[in-house]
Design goal:
about 400 residues; Aminoglycoside 3'-phosphotransferase, Chain: A, domain 2; three-stranded antiparallel β-sheet; hydroxylysine kinase activity; transferase; Pseudomonas-type_ThrB; Hydroxylysine kinase
């Protein structure tokens, strides 16, 4: 969902490569022949699902992969994209179901591809990632247990990266090491992530970082003058008054930043009694990764897990319980959770409306959150912080040992 660190503007150009052009990139940059290619949904980048032709020279290469083409703005931050790619590999080695990155023919993890748009030459960073199995969690009814596991997964991801250092990273481009049955975070628990460009994750003006909610004011015109805008304006003011003043009390970490219901893939299996049991099979899209706070990650996860839920207010308690089974929040962090969830709704809804002005042809994908998001935000606002917190915290408490659910 990333769009670079500066303010979103007309300068951002979403890639518009044809399938023929994308196939040519896979061939020329990565040395692989394409047998089939089709576009995948995306926010402001461009992704293709690629099937590779088998030859005697590529018997040990990928069968399926994803060609990711970054937009023009994020393509200007190659250091950031390299760090994000290294983190995906580090997490994969630690047991998380993240993608592996394939090297180019020149032994790099990214390549800058230029294309003549008619009026100017535009450059885009491209990567080739392993294709992860499963379907988006948005497509299934999410049980309370799965919500708990997703909260736990979010916390373990942040916890695994909490001692990261800005030194040289290990090798990248190895064959995937994650496999079904390996518990995320169970490997490499005593290893830290190192990279010389780790500081690139300090993205001060990144519009999707929850710390930058006040930057939404520049895009409110996209909503028009209505009740929706009034709610967003109130949330922004509350954020300034009640969250900005407490940031120094939050514990800092590296956030994935976009654990939404389309970036978490699941696969099903049958339980002993014949019921479907779901397991997370993929974590996608690390483009919004940045330095933030533990409480940001759980707030973002709660908000996105609410989107398709028929009982959205109840979602937060289950996700929170899972998260706190790994990283218990402090009282100050808990006290900010309600406003942070509301703030993430505002980020998603405002920026989707703004992006629709720029890319009306992509409206169906851009407005996924808006289909239910405004209703959920309104419900939270109408109920008020105290009532919502009571539901969340009581639900989370019910997971504690000795307390019956």
């Amino acid at each position: 969902m990333s769009s670079g660190d500066g303010q979103q503007s007309q300068a951002l150009t979403k890639p518009a490569f044809s399938e023929v052009q994308a196939s040519a990139i896979v061939d020329s940059v990565f040395g692989l022949k394409v047998s089939k290619i089709q576009p995948l949904p995306s926010y402001d980048d461009q992704n293709f699902h690629v099937c590779i032709s088998r030859t005697k020279d590529t018997t040990d290469g990928p069968n399926e992969c994803v060609l990711k083409i970054n937009n023009t703005e994020s393509s200007k931050t190659p250091d950031l994209i390299e760090v994000q790619s290294h983190i995906m590999m580090f997490l994969r080695a630690a047991g998380f179901p993240t993608a592996s990155v394939y090297r180019t023919k020149g032994d790099h993890i990214t390549s800058l591809t230029s294309i003549d748009s008619g009026s100017e030459i535009k450059s885009y960073l491209v990567r080739l990632l392993t294709y992860l199995p499963g379907r988006p969690i948005a497509e299934i009814p999410i049980s309370s247990q799965l919500l708990y596991e997703i909260g736990r997964l979010a916390a373990k991801l942040d916890k695994t990266l909490e001692h990261s250092e800005g030194q040289h990273a290990g090798q990248i481009g190895r064959k995937p090491e994650w496999r079904q049955g390996v518990h995320p975070g169970s490997q490499c628990s005593n290893q830290n992530f190192h990279h010389p460009q780790l500081s690139s994750l300090h993205r001060e003006n990144f519009i999707w970082n929850l710390k930058n909610v006040p930057l939404l004011e520049k895009y409110l015109y996209a909503l028009g003058q209505n009740r929706k805008r009034e709610i967003v304006e109130q949330v922004i003011q509350l954020f300034k008054d009640e969250v900005m003043t407490k940031l120094s009390h939050f514990r800092e970490c590296i956030n994935h930043g976009d654990l939404n219901d389309h970036n978490i893939l699941i696969e099903s299996s049958k339980s002993a009694c014949g019921d479907a049991v779901y397991q997370v099979s993929g974590i996608l899209d690390f483009d919004d990764m940045s330095y933030g706070y533990y409480v940001f990650e759980v707030a973002i996860t709660i908000m996105y897990m609410m989107i398709e839920s028929k009982t959205p207010i109840q979602v937060g308690g289950h996700v929170l319980a899972g998260f706190e089974s790994v990283i218990p929040l402090t009282p100050v962090e808990r006290g900010a959770l309600f406003l942070l969830v509301c703030s993430r709704f505002c980020q998603s809804l405002v920026l989707a409306a703004y992006s629709c002005h720029l890319y009306p042809e992509n409206e169906e994908y851009l407005m996924i959150t808006a289909k239910t998001g405004w209703r959920h935000l309104q419900q939270m606002f109408d109920m008020g912080q105290k009532a919502v917190e009571e539901i969340w915290f009581e639900t989370a408490k019910s997971y504690e040992p000795g307390i019956s659910m």
